[in-house]
Amino acid sequence: MELRRVCHHCGIHFIAKKTGTKFCSLKCGQKNYKLRERINKINASKASSKPELSQPYKPIEKPYAPEIEFINIKMLALVIGVSERTLFRLIKDNDLPRLKIGRRLLFHRKTVIDYISNKYGLLL
Question: Where are the domains of the chain?
Answer without folding.
Answer: 3-48, 70-120
